[in-house]
Automatic annotation (TrEMBL):
It is found in: Cytoplasm. This is Thioredoxin peroxidase. The active site is at 50 (cysteine sulfenic acid (-soh) intermediate). CDD domains: PRX_Typ2cys. It comes from the Bacteria. Keywords: Cytoplasm, Disulfide bond, Oxidoreductase, Peroxidase, Redox-active center. It holds the Pfam family AhpC-TSA. Residues 3-176 form the Thioredoxin domain. GO terms for molecular function: thioredoxin peroxidase activity. Gene3D superfamilies: Glutaredoxin (3.40.30.10). PROSITE patterns: THIOREDOXIN_2 (PS51352). Belongs to the peroxiredoxin family. AhpC/Prx1 subfamily.
Amino acid sequence: MSVLVGRQAPGFSASAVIDGGNIVNDFTLEQFKGKYVILFFYPKDFTFVCPTELFAFQEKLAEFKSRNVELVAVSTDTEQSHWGWLQMEKNHGGIKGITYPIVADTNKTISMNYDVLAGELDWNDEGEMIATGELIAYRGLFLIDREGKVRHQLVNDLPLGRNVDEAIRMVDSLQHLEENGEVCPANWVKGKEGLTATHDGIADYLSKN
């Protein structure tokens, strides 16, 4: 699994559904330059853990927006599949009400470039392409800063849902560092004291905590 932290986030241009129902064909991250982005991958439309995550992110959308963060979801389903799922009511298993963009990684290149694609492609002795396992995305999450650099990444196996509050905490940690020049110790949350990255700084922090 590649570590993208500290590197520029891989770019892409793909179809996506925005605002809960409008399909666009050339969605990119470039439009968010100067903003933070939480880019998260999920395995499949019309499944079970995935809608719980999608709605959990939607419930916190205002909190992300207040921090100048754009949410972008990605799966390897088509834009038509995304659109159909978005038209279904929540009590029927749909995700109607999700308003942030959902990108269609139909050719799986985005998932490959972020190294979150489950399964493997290979060639047999007859020169035929073969696949081991389903070629769908793991639950990857990437925090991208205003310059397009990945500052945090998390990859969960398919059955394991993520904690949206932790994603917000990581945004707060990055913004605290940028605004105050202080690093964020274990279990830091917004409003708590950071520390200066010196021997005296850590000694002072530990003496108080």
